[in-house]
Amino acid sequence: MARQDEILRAAISVLAKKGFQHTKIRDIAKAAGVADGTIYLYFKNKDELLVRLFEEVMQRVLGILRKALEKVTEPEEKLRCFLHTHLHMVEEEPEIASIISVVLRQSTTFLTEYENTLFVEYLRLLQDILQEGVDAGVFHSGVDPIITGRALFGAVDELALAWLMSRQKSSLEHTSSVVADMVLNGLCQSLERPA
Amino acid sequence: MARQDEILRAAISVLAKKGFQHTKIRDIAKAAGVADGTIYLYFKNKDELLVRLFEEVMQRVLGILRKALEKVTEPEEKLRCFLHTHLHMVEEEPEIASIISVVLRQSTTFLTEYENTLFVEYLRLLQDILQEGVDAGVFHSGVDPIITGRALFGAVDELALAWLMSRQKSSLEHTSSVVADMVLNGLCQSLERPA
Amino acid sequence: MARQDEILRAAISVLAKKGFQHTKIRDIAKAAGVADGTIYLYFKNKDELLVRLFEEVMQRVLGILRKALEKVTEPEEKLRCFLHTHLHMVEEEPEIASIISVVLRQSTTFLTEYENTLFVEYLRLLQDILQEGVDAGVFHSGVDPIITGRALFGAVDELALAWLMSRQKSSLEHTSSVVADMVLNGLCQSLERPA
Amino acid sequence: MARQDEILRAAISVLAKKGFQHTKIRDIAKAAGVADGTIYLYFKNKDELLVRLFEEVMQRVLGILRKALEKVTEPEEKLRCFLHTHLHMVEEEPEIASIISVVLRQSTTFLTEYENTLFVEYLRLLQDILQEGVDAGVFHSGVDPIITGRALFGAVDELALAWLMSRQKSSLEHTSSVVADMVLNGLCQSLERPA
DNA sequence: CATGAATGAGGATTCATTCAT
DNA sequence: CATGAATGAATCCTCATTCAT
């Protein structure tokens, strides 16, 4: 339904600008060019609108990441690609990125009550790359895909947040390769403890 | 002032449980065992209470980290110690950790308007360790302390959040060493690209 | 807008009965038969409601006075007409009168911050009559229209207040002519100081 | 009791500055240099403090007026003296004047519930002068002392208010004589209606 | 007598949601 | 389907008053 999408688009824009607590149904309605009541023809209530909005956003992010990863085969390259694509998306679609980095955390609902299937899918994407690397013997056998995946998301997300909050936005190209280097090769000159 | 501390303690507890948006002055007053009006004898308004609370929390975290780092000299060990101490603190004082991982991000004020000196200090702690390592030749010369520091905070913070949100809480001991290994040695078996 | 007028009418009634300090938004809403929140659809806040209410009242009073003065030409008669019309209005619309005599003075805002254009217009009406009389040689050349005008308002207003506060309300017809006589002819039998 | 007077003096000063609605017990306590609770050792509550304060003020005004009138014998001169003394007092003790012109009217209590014996005395002072003049044949026999007295108070009070609210304060000497001339001789050149 | 910390009732205002048109 | 006026529960904050010290 076109009208529903208009509302969602408007909601994304407003949320990205105003944050969770300061976004009123009225604001979204105005931005979408509809009456307040119209929102309730398409969404049961504010929470449902938020959930649908988040799912829309995550679907988009997952689509972008999957498409980018399609042509890459090597685990290391996949990881680089993943990090690069996520941060590139932040630059290209800051509103989308803002929803994930900022808005998502501002709602207690998303953190606790809502079963976040799509975020789990996002994590799985990362975990699969890591597991693949371990299985292929490219990554250390001790690498824990669950923990590492989560840590990587945290790192990327925090860098995204920092970028979104900063006044003058330098390119995230460099940032993504710095993180990739750290993650793949480690900080140490030589292996800390030669296994 | 003892009463002020009682209120802050109560506020930490309530915020950790209910989150930012759902915490009412009334809740804090009840938890502290005082009347609503009493809150305003010690804090100008809700926002100031929140700022003071956050500063209290960050001071505590900074204190814990600095104390732990005191006796460590080597950069690698410092980094391990940092990660371990932060995650250990999460286990020991989940309410404190919750303020940082959850509540902090729920307030637009903290993300945008509030000049977050203490968080900058936290980051500086990390950055100094990294810079030290680079200067000592222990870490790669290409390591960017700013980006890397922020990424590390993001990683640790996300793992803390995941732990706080999980039903059954496994030890974070293992988690901290997994992250430390990744960060120091990288995921790859051999250096990805021999420089 | 009809609803706005209903609210203003209700507000006048409540203010006249309860006075400035004891009038709550809730009271006005109840008197108008609307919900509390509805008030805020038509007025930004309580202060704005009060200002709009006062302007409504003053417009009405000015209208009544101007209409009554229309057909009078002689300065003395104009003055008599002015005094009579004002006090007649007090009898006919005590609520309106109460706003001017009582409520207006109860708000520091009206006395100090608010630029009271309409009250200035009221005073000008009086001053113009006095100036006209001086110019026509009907009134003493020494008459100061500014001071005298203000004094006359004070006299009328105080008599209105006394009437409003009194239990048994005698006619103000007599009162108005007593004042007019004093003002026009003076209290003295013969001129005090034959100029 | 000295302490009580200190509080009253402080209260007069604060009320004159801040007006009725904005004067808090706290403000008075601070101005008097005592603790909030101390106020309640000398006054049952805020209303009683206000009543006592008003009585203090009126006693002072009555004293001043009576003293000034002591040596005057002729009704016309008495009236001139009354007006002059009242307005002179406004210039000399604006805080006192402010209580009468502004603060008194801001409290519904004083206007309605409180039996204002001292204000009645003030009015009687005026009425007696007028009655005396009528009895002595100096004033018209038609002069109504009740109405005229009230009107005179209104005139003087309004002029006092205007002066108190004005930025640059011109002398009230002139004002008092303008009013006296009007009241005694009337505005008209010749008697309006030759009796 | 004096204090001032504590109280808690009370009031202005906001905003998600409804429903008559 | 769409509207937007109306609702009223919910919450922050103030301040007169009390009372233990």
Characterise this structure:
Four copies of one chain form a homotetramer. Chain A has helices at 2-18, 25-32, 36-42, 46-69, 75-92, 94-106, 108-113, 117-135, 145-165, 172-185. With 195 residues, chain A is mostly helical. Chain A has one domain (46-187): Tetracycline Repressor, domain 2 (Orthogonal Bundle). The longest helix of chain A has 24 residues, at 46-69. The termini of chain A are far apart. The mean pLDDT of chain A is 92. Chains in contact: A-B, C-D. Chains C and D meet through helix 6, helix 7, helix 9 and helix 10 of C and helix 6, helix 9 and helix 10 of D. The structure holds a DNA duplex (21 and 21 nucleotides).
Radius of gyration from the alpha-carbon trace of chain A, in angstroms: 19 Å
Kindly report the CATH topology of chain A.
Tetracycline Repressor, domain 2
Major pleated sheet of chain A: none
Order of helices and strands of chain A: HHHHHHHHHH
Quaternary structure type = homotetramer
Q: How many domains, in number, for the residues of chain A?
A: 1
Low-confidence runs of at least 5 consecutive residues of chain A: none
Helix content of chain A: over 70%
User: Can you identify the CATH superfamily of chain A?
Assistant: Tetracycline Repressor, domain 2
CATH class designation of chain A? Mainly Alpha
Count of β-strands of chain A? 0
In DSSP terms, counting alpha (H) and pi (I) runs of 4 or more, how many helices of chain A?
Answer: 10
Percentage beta strand of chain A: under 5%
